[in-house]
Design goal:
Blueprint lengths: L1 E6 L3 H16 L3 E2 L8 E6 L4 H17 L4 E6 H5 L1 H4 L6 E3 L7 H11 L3 E3 L21 E8 L10 H5 L3 E2 L2 H13 L4 E6 L13 H8 L7 E4 L9 H9 L6 E3 L7 H6 L6 H14 L4 E8 L6 H14 L3 E6 L17 H24 L5 E9 L4 E5 L4 E4 L8 E8 L5 E3 L1
Parallel strand pairs: 1-2, 1-3, 3-4, 4-5, 5-6, 7-9, 9-10, 11-12, 12-13, 16-18
Antiparallel strand pairs: 7-8, 14-15, 14-17, 15-16, 17-18
Length: 423
């Protein structure tokens, strides 16, 4: 039988979808795309913004239109957030963010009963759902989900409501999964979760403990952290960052706003001065580290003056890249009840300004490495060029046909604001 797995959203969803694919392959199913007549279609959805909701809904409708006779399975955050409206789209199995590892069992149940299956749980009182992956299709970088859920309840964010409270993969289970991936040749491991930096909360270990433990794996060359909050960067983490060269020279640390009154209304747990001070500590340890961030523009209470303050502080911090998100109202969150003073046109204008600033900062960061030798882990190989990333997450093009997963050292030169290459 043929299965199609479609994924929207974050790296956690990508990891979970890879686990789902692997389970089907091990049960002798064939993985195909949507246009290759799959018997089963699994759609792992996202709901972080209104646009994510729209994409998820369109994906379900498109799958049903192209393959009306396929079994349609919908899971993920959009399912959790809009469960009441999804069955009308012709879905056969509807689950949220639990039981993704049991989809094969649910499909077998469906074949027996021929009736729609709907299963949801209280994610605030659920255990971590262990998923273990042994291989990633067409990847040189191994993603490992070590954590789920979030307790922060930022006023704009729906994620705590659709992912539940924080919960963790046992450190020994995580270690064995990573060890297996390293044994299979993966040289870079990305530690990921909904709130990765909270890993180990309520136990006698944390993210730094796990990093130390997996660093003993000799063939593991890089440890990358998908994202970490500034409030989770403690002295132990900084000490490890200083001595452990396997930790990638790149940290993604969400800012969300560069103005204190907006940060307070967002229910973020820091002010801009605290954020800057920790960034300075990191750069004293690793002067050339690439620090990237997320910023929301057009939050309901963000004035023009607030936005100008954000721009000023971003220029001072000198991020390597900014992921810009226009504020998206999420019903059920505290921000949804706030009076919105920012028009759609103003959000677009602020987004454009911040995106342009991000391109400038990214270009400035690249300039530091001109004519320097840098090491690239090759991820993609074509007939006349290869592509990969450096430890500090610069995407590099090399005008040679190399081997995937090969470490390559060459001299860095800049092509334009968005592309670099190695001579």
């Amino acid at each position: 039988m043929k299965v199609c797995v479609l994924t929207l959203g974050c790296k956690v969803n990508l990891y979970e979808s890879e686990v789902i694919k692997e389970q089907f392959i091990s049960n002798n199913f064939q993985i195909v795309d949507l246009n290759n007549n799959p018997n089963i279609i699994i759609i792992n959805t996202c709901s972080v913004t209104n646009q994510s909701d729209s994409k998820s809904r369109k994906m379900i409708r498109r799958a049903k239109k192209i393959n009306p006779d396929s079994i349609i399975v919908v899971c993920g955050c959009f399912a959790e957030n809009h469960k009441e409206n999804i069955l009308s789209l012709g879905v056969d199995i509807l689950i949220g963010n639990k039981d993704k590892s049991r989809i094969i069992n649910l499909i077998n149940d469906y074949y027996e009963t021929k009736t729609p299956i709907v299963k949801f749980y209280d994610l605030n009182n659920s255990l971590f759902e262990d998923m273990v992956i042994n291989n990633f299709e067409n990847r040189t970088r191994g993603f490992v989900k070590i954590q789920d859920g979030c307790n922060n309840y930022c006023s704009y964010c729906i994620i705590p409501y659709v992912r539940g409270s924080i919960r963790n993969k046992d450190i020994n289970v995580a270690y064995e999964e990573i060890k297996e991936l390293v044994n299979k040749g993966y040289k870079e491991i990305v530690l990921t979760g909904i709130h990765t930096g909270s890993y180990g909360a309520g136990t006698n270990y944390n993210l730094t403990t796990l990093i130390k433990k997996i660093s003993s794996l000799k063939e593991l060359k890089r440890i990358r952290i998908s994202s970490i909050e500034i409030t989770e960067i403690d002295d132990d983490f900084l000490k490890e960052l200083k001595i452990n060269k396997k930790i990638c020279d790149h940290l993604h640390i969400p800012l969300q706003s560069g103005e204190d009154s907006v940060l307070k209304m967002m229910n973020r747990k820091y002010n801009i001065q605290e954020y800057k001070e920790l960034i300075n500590k990191i750069r004293k340890i690793r002067p050339n580290i690439n620090i990237t961030t997320d910023v929301i523009v057009g939050f309901p209470t963000e004035t023009k003056e607030n936005f100008r303050e954000t721009i000023k502080n971003i220029k001072e911090i000198k991020f390597g890249k900014i992921h810009v998100f226009p504020y998206s109202k999420r019903n059920g969150t505290a921000a949804a009840r706030m009076k919105d003073i920012v028009s759609s046109i103003e959000k677009k204008n602020r987004s454009k300004e911040l995106i342009n600033l991000s391109l400038e900062l990214e270009h400035d960061y690249y300039l530091k490495f001109i004519d320097q030798k840098i090491e690239v882990l090759i991820e993609e190989v074509n007939d006349n060029y290869s592509m990969g990333h450096t430890s500090n997450y610069i995407k590099v093009v090399i005008n040679k046909k190399l081997k995937p997963n090969q470490e390559y050292i060459g001299k860095f030169t800049l092509l334009d604001k968005n592309n670099v290459k190695i001579l």
